[in-house]
Amino acid sequence: LRVPNFFAAVEIAARSDLIMTLPSSLARAAANMRRFVSLPPPLDLGSFTMSLAWHARQQDAPRHIWLRRAIVTAAMDMSSVIEVGS
After folding, report:
1. Cα dihedral sign for 4, 10, 13, 15?
2. Which end of the chain is more exposed for a tag (fewer CB within 10 A), N or C?
3. In whole numbers, what is the pLDDT of the chain averaged over residues?
4. How many other CB atoms are found less than 10 A from the CB of residue 12?
5. Which residues make Cβ contacts (< 8 Å) with residue 38, sequence separation at least 6?
6. In terms of domains, do 30 and 60 share one?
7. DSSP state of 76
C-alpha cells in the first residue's frame, strides 16, 4: 500500500493491522499519539537522495533562491538530528 504522505500512513495503520515505515522522529511522535509500538526495521533500508526541482525561469529569482536555501538548511538540520538520535 502506498500513501501520499506519512500522516495518511499513520491514520491507516491506526485503523488496521498494517505496519508502516517512518522516519524515526515521526515514528516516535506516532507512538506517543496513537499507542503504536516503534521498533527498528529488521533489515537495512539503505539511504536515499532528496532533490529539489524548479522551473528554469526561477533559477535566479531572489525569493526562490532564499526558499531553496531554507529547504536545504532544514533538511540538513533534520539529517543531523536523525544521525545523532539513531
Report:
1. negative
2. C
3. 83
4. 13
5. 24, 27, 28, 30, 31
6. no
7. H
| C-alpha cell of residue 27 | 515514528
Global pTM exceeds 0.70: no
Number of domains within the chain: 2
29: amino acid identity, one letter:
A
Q: Do 66 and 36 sit in the same domain of this protein?
A: no
Same domain, 33 and 52: no
DSSP state for residue 59 in the 8-state scheme: T
Q: What is the mean pLDDT of residues 65-72?
A: 95
Task: Say whether both 61 and 86 belong to one domain.
Answer: yes
d(CA 33, CA 77): 24
pLDDT tens profile 29-56: 888 876 788 888 888 888 777 789 999 9
Residue 36's CB is within 10 A of a number of other CB atoms, namely 18
Structure-model confidence comparison of residues 49 and 80, the more confident one: 49
Domain span at residue 1 reads 1-41
